[in-house]
Amino acid sequence: MSIELRRGTVVETIRLTPGMVRVVFGGRELRGFPGTGVGDEYLRLHFPVPGTGEFVLPVDNPEGRGWSYPEGSTPSPCQPYTVRRLDAARGEMTIDFVVHEGGVASEWARAARPGDQLFVGGPRGLYEPPADTVWHLFAADATGLPALGRLVEQLPAHARAHAIVEVAHESHAQRIDAAADVTFTWLYGSGNGVAPSLLPEAVRGLPLPKGPGYVWAAGESTMLRGIRRHLRHGLGLPGHRYKIIGYWTHRAEEWQARYDALDEEVRARLDSVWESGRDEEEIRDEVERTLERAGL
């Protein structure tokens, strides 16, 4: 598959809350951008190389499979982000960035000014409720809030939904308008790297409506295991009735170091599970059990 990157130029920045900054991009190359229309669609942002401000972008491999960077180069940092709004006809794209200390994307967004640029590519959406869905449950920490906001805004007027959002402070809450019948529960001062998350407990304690529904949850990867376990094993929901998406990992460098230090037997077990060809949810069950036994 060929890689197609488009240049986006900062038109406006808005500090939505102390914890989030909105960046609106425009430019000729964003006109006609092939968005998916799915509320949680994300794409890859390619940032300037720190220290140089230059872009070193991936190119298609001559063999026609995948892509690579010029030999000996320092690639532009690349991270996936949710598209909060897209107006392809006008060539405008809105992306909300969580504000935190460190991190290429957060630092770039906080300093962004009109005229600054980056490159975008590869839109993909994951939210896929069955046609017979009569209720929706959304759950997210701050990183999932942009996608949750767009998903809620795009619900049809006849839809019913409840959203549970966990943010670091009450001042980080946002107003989200919707045509549908949507209620909100806000959790303050937990999760998001500041304290243990209360999101799994909140989901477990919520009585679900009758009839077929759909649950969408996004945020810190290890926290989400508890939500998925409740949905799959506690409630017995089939995999097509929920979507669980890990956006980040708490203390990621430490987690990665411990993962890299796993003994060969555990690594081999994980590889065999991934390659087993079993049902995707069964694979995820086994992978999560193996990681948790290893302290991950």
UniProtKB/TrEMBL annotation:
Record domain FAD-binding FR-type: where: 3-130
PROSITE patterns: FAD_FR
Short name of one Pfam family: SIP
The species this protein was found in: Streptosporangium saharense
Database matches in PANTHER family: FERRIC REDUCTASE, NADPH-DEPENDENT, NADPH-DEPENDENT FERRIC-CHELATE REDUCTASE
GO molecular function: oxidoreductase activity
Protein name: NADPH-dependent ferric siderophore reductase
InterPro entries assigned: FAD-bd_FR_type, FNR_nucleotide-bd, Riboflavin_synthase-like_b-brl, SIP_FAD-bd, SIP_fam, SIP_rossman_dom
Signal peptide stretch: none
